[in-house]
Amino acid sequence: MARVSVEYQDNIARVTLTRGDKMNALDKAMIEAIVSAGQEVAASDARAVVLSGEGKSFCAGLDMASFGALAAGGDNNWIMERTHEDANLFQEVALVWRRVKVPVIAAIQGAAYGGGLQLALGADIRIAAPAAKFSVMEMKWGLIPDMGGMVLLPHLMRSDALRQMTYTARPVDANQALTWGLVTSISEDPLTEALALAEEIAGKSPSAIRAAKRLIDIAESHGRQDVLLAESAEQGKLIGGAEQMEVIAANLQGRAPIFK
């Protein structure tokens, strides 16, 4: 069965988890499908991406029934294999969206637990329904988050809040998630809002948007000197370019810019 659908419209890629009857729980087929979808979108001409899950929940985390057999096998050497640059397959579920060169917006309803939360963390922006729930769930199963969460969470949360969520596995509601930095905003209709935001972003200069995402990634992981140099390098490539000149012309003429 298909686990993920990818659709393109108006320069926006819509990526949907399609295992709604299982709360979009992650079995190996779905993990592979998510990574494949991220790679496809990264190679496309999309200017923004909306990531969502069908049904009642965004993603309830690992399908423990599917992965019980994997744990029972006793050979955990695969965990250390770097199959996707600096990550293994499981970590790439989240990190592939950071490798996508344009903004990714996650629309979250219901549960975003464990691996599902880490998948959402791979997005640039997260819009949650008021009733959404979030959990670093792994401790419930005697595990630690290992799908890229510890690369992404410390950039979003205070250390004490992160530690509490990790140590207890307790779910938190959307308001608490917003306070702690796990989500960007709360909306009664997160998918509609995500699509509207993607449309707004897709109307900006594609080269400037991509440069901005690269620059933010550098700013979050490098020192002052590298960031200042990156600012200058990215700006130097944009100033006077065809897209920047079109933005100027459109602003002066009171119209929307048109990018080829």
Question: What's the helix and strand layout?
Answer:
Layout: E1 4-9, E2 12-17, H1 28-42, E3 48-53, H2 64-72, H3 89-99, E4 104-108, E5 111-113, H4 115-121, E6 125-128, E7 133-135, H5 149-156, H6 159-168, E8 172-173, H7 174-180, E9 185-186, H8 190-202, H9 206-221, H10 224-238, H11 242-253
How would you describe the overall organization of this protein?
The chain is an alpha/beta fold. β1 (4-9) and β2 form a beta hairpin. The chain has 2 domains: 4-202, Alpha-Beta Complex (2-enoyl-CoA Hydratase, Chain A, domain 1); 206-253, Lyase 2-enoyl-coa Hydratase, Chain  A, domain 2, CATH 1.10.12.10. The strands form 2 sheets. It has a 6-stranded mixed beta sheet with strand order 1-2-3-4-6-9, with helices on both faces. Helix content is 47%, strand content 14%. Pathway: Lipid metabolism; fatty acid beta-oxidation.
